[in-house]
Design brief:
alpha+beta; 9 helices; 2 domains
Amino acid sequence: MNVQLPVRSLEARYYTDPKVFEIERNGLLARTWQFAGHASQLEKAGDYFAFEVAGESLFCIKDKTGEIRTFYNVCQHRAHRLVEGDGSARVVVCPYHAWTYELTGELRAGPNLKSVPGFDRKKICLTSVRTEIFLGFIFVNLDDNAKPMDDWFPEARAEIEEFVPHWADLKPLEWVDVDEKCNWKVSVENYSECYHCPSNHPTFASGVIRPETYDIQPQGYCLRHTTECQNLDAMTYPIDLGSNPRAGDYSSWFLWPMFSFQVYPGNLLNTYHWRAIDAGHVVVWRGWYSIGGVDDEVVRKLAIQDRSTTVEEDIRLVESVQRGLQSRGYVPGPLVLDPSCGVMSEHSIQVLQKWMREAVDGAE
């Protein structure tokens, strides 16, 4: 008789070893779709903002046709960084030697270039980065051969549109950095199961969702969270169940490896973006959105509630886990895999850790 052994969690080195982090940064993070920003940050031609992906400095900019482009933030002359922060420019001018680029990346001019024999400015262009606009959010991928986002995350776009039909009218109301002293995977795992919710998130579990209806299932490289809202008399904020067929539901779409769309009951959109700093440090960028980015009392109060309850509770949890992973006494324990899934099962962690293991072991 064959006895099936329990599935055990990842070894501690996946979360603590700086060499593993470097493998991920040079491989996984450079070959997956990464969040850059929101299209509303680039309202007119010439608007730009700089950001980092996998240790690379990049910038997004809107050209004169309205297309949002992304480039490596490096001059093609002598490698000076082109832009810092955000702003607006008629053309992109390198601060070092004033080489000037069009908004489409082509070299326009530079001091004394006409004196160079055989110089052809048409052959010089900033190095572009693969870019997609996903429901108003800008994503980039350093891998030019990567499959489109709809292949990576099947059904996600249509499902989010169903939950947030007004997505085109939304703009950021606030973005808040949440500093966590843990490996990014510890934080992502914590987000990707609700086994810990009933005992650690009393406000979320009793005043927002009904834990007994919670489930998480994979869709491609997406983990789809679904549950129902609490009874209206127990909800911590008002919702109108008649405003939308999905107004009474909570759902989340975690897009591997570092971004999540989350829709609270009442069709309130918020997002998570994990920015890995090093093997033991991650910054979670929490975003909340409203019509036109205008202050919304319900969204604002929910953001404050979330920050003071669920977020603070999770910081304590993930930082404790990171400390525990560094203990010589830690032996990876078995995952709780309930065949019927549900809130008290870690089947989503099994899937997630498979992706994590493949990203590292396949590159070592």
